[in-house]
Design goal:
There is one protein chain. The protein is of the alpha/beta class. It folds into two domains: 190 residues, Medium-chain alcohol dehydrogenases, catalytic domain (Quinone Oxidoreductase, Chain A, domain 1), CATH 3.90.180.10; 135 residues, NAD(P)-binding Rossmann-like Domain (Rossmann fold), CATH 3.40.50. The strands form four sheets. Strands 3, 5, 6, 9, 10, 17 and 18 form a seven-stranded mixed β-sheet that branches. Strands 13-12-11-14-15-16 form a six-stranded parallel β-sheet, sandwiched between helices. β14, α7 and β15 form a beta-alpha-beta unit. It is globular, with a radius of gyration of 20 Å.
C-alpha cells in the first residue's frame, strides 16, 4: 500500500509498504481522510522532533525512521482482531492517536495519561499513520462515529479535541467573553468549541482571509485586526463591565500576541497557552501578579474525544467550513506542505486521501 514516510528533515517519500497485520485487540482501518497538522510541518522543516531518528528508536514504539506520518484521520473498519467485539466491519471511526506505555492508566477517569513519560503519537513516532492507506490501531484509541457524519469532516475531530481540551482547561462557561490570539486551524477550532458552549468569541488575527473565515464560519462574533485597532481596548468595550475578557487563548507562539492577551484579560482572568513555543517567552510576570492572572498550559487532549464527537454529531459544531483543500498523498509536499508553509493564510485544513478515493 502507499504511505507517506518521514525519513528526515525535508525528506518525506511516498513509499510502497506492506499492509498492516491486525493483531489481537486491534482494529484494522481503511483510512478515508487525513489532515495535515502544524506538527507535521514542524517535522518537515525542523525535525525530527516527535519523530524518531534513524539511530534512536522511540522508547515505546521501538521504531526508528522512516515512519509513516499522519495523526488526524478518519476511516472505515475493515478487520477486527481477536477480542474486539464492540465494533463491526464497516463502522466509521476516528482515532485518538496516542502511543502510551501499557503501564499507564488510560481509563475513562484518567486526566493525565497524555502527560505520561515518553508519550508520543501514532503517525509521528511509529505504529503506522493516517497518511497510509490502512492502519491497525489498539481498540482503546478507536472511537466510533455516526455514519451520518461525513468522513472528511470527521478527520477534523482530532484537532477539534485539542480545542476542546484547551477550553476545558480554561474553565470557560456560557456567557463568558473569550479572546483568541491567532485564527489558524487550532485557533478557529478552539473558537468553535467556545461558541458551542455559549461564549462571546473575539479573534485577533493579522490575515484578512482568516478573519473572514472566523466570521463566515460563525465561530467568532468579532474579528479584530491588531494593526488597525487596540485589541485590548476593543475587548474591554465588548465586555459587559468594561474590564476585559474572562478567558484568553494564545494560538500563535508570538510574543506580542501573548502580551496583547494579557492586556485584554480582566483581573483574575485565565490565559491558556495552546501553541507550542520553540523559544523562551519574555513574559511580563509583574503584570500577571498585579492582575492575579491564571496562566495555564494545555497539550493535546485527555479523554476528550467522546465529548468532542458529541458536539459535532449534535450539530453544535459544523466542521465543513474549515476544509479548504483535498489532495492525493502523492501531492503531499508540493500541494499540501508548500501551501501551508508558504501561503498558510489561504488554507485552514488540507485533507489527504491516501487511496485517492473521494478526490
Amino acid at each position: 500500500m502507499k504511505a507517506a514516510r518521514f525519513y528526515d528533515r525535508e525528506d518525506i517519500r511516498i513509499d510502497e509498504v506492506p499492509e498492516p497485520t491486525v493483531g489481537p485487540g486491534e482494529v484494522g482501518i481503511d483510512v478515508a481522510w487525513c489532515g495535515i497538522c502544524g506538527t507535521d510541518l514542524h517535522e518537515y522543516k525542523d525535525g525530527p522532533v516527535f519523530c524518531p531518528t534513524h539511530s534512536t528508536p522511540h522508547p515505546i514504539s521501538g521504531e526508528t525512521a522512516p515512519v509513516t506520518l499522519g495523526h488526524e484521520f478518519s476511516g472505515v473498519v475493515y478487520a477486527l482482531g481477536d477480542g474486539v467485539e464492540d465494533l463491526r466491519v464497516g463502522d466509521h471511526v476516528v482515532v485518538e492517536p496516542y502511543i502510551i506505555d501499557d503501564s499507564v492508566d488510560t481509563g475513562p477517569d484518567s486526566k493525565d495519561y497524555h502527560l505520561s513519560e515518553n508519550m508520543n503519537f501514532i503517525g509521528l513516532a511509529g505504529r503506522g499513520g493516517g497518511l497510509g492507506e490502512k492502519i491497525s490501531v489498539k481498540r482503546r484509541w478507536v472511537h466510533a462515529i455516526s455514519q451520518d457524519l461525513p468522513l472528511d469532516q470527521a478527520a477534523l475531530i482530532e484537532p477539534l479535541s485539542v480545542g476542546y481540551h484547551a477550553v476545558e482547561r480554561s474553565g470557560a462557561k456560557a456567557g463568558d467573553v473569550a479572546v483568541i490570539g491567532g485564527a489558524g486551524p487550532i485557533g478557529l477550532l478552539t473558537a468553535a468549541v467556545l461558541k458551542a458552549i455559549g461564549c462571546t468569541v473575539v479573534v485577533s488575527e493579522l490575515s484578512p482571509l482568516r478573519r473572514q473565515k472566523a466570521l463566515e464560519s460563525g465561530v467568532a462574533d468579532h474579528a479584530l485586526d491588531p494593526t488597525q485597532v487596540d485589541v485590548a481596548e476593543e475587548v474591554r468595550k465588548l465586555s459587559s463591565d468594561g474590564r476585559g475578557a474572562d478567558v484568553a487563548f494564545e494560538c500563535t507562539s508570538v510574543q506580542v500576541v501573548l502580551d496583547t492577551l494579557m492586556d485584554a484579560l480582566r483581573p483574575t482572568g485565565v490565559l491558556v497557552v495552546v501553541s507550542i513555543w520553540a523559544q523562551r517567552s519574555n513574559f511580563d510576570i509583574h503584570k500577571l501578579v498585579m492582575k492575579e492572572i491564571d496562566l495555564r498550559g494545555t497539550i493535546a487532549y485527555v479523554n476528550s474525544h467522546p465529548a468532542t464527537i458529541e458536539l459535532v454529531e449534535s450539530g453544535k459544531i459544523d466542521l465543513a467550513p474549515f476544509i479548504t483543500g483535498k489532495i492525493a498523498v502523492e501531492n503531499l509536499v508540493d500541494e499540501g506542505f508548500d501551501t501551508l508553509i508558504n501561503r498558510n493564510e489561504t488554507a485552514v485544513k488540507i485533507l489527504v486521501s491516501p487511496s485517492g478515493q473521494g478526490l
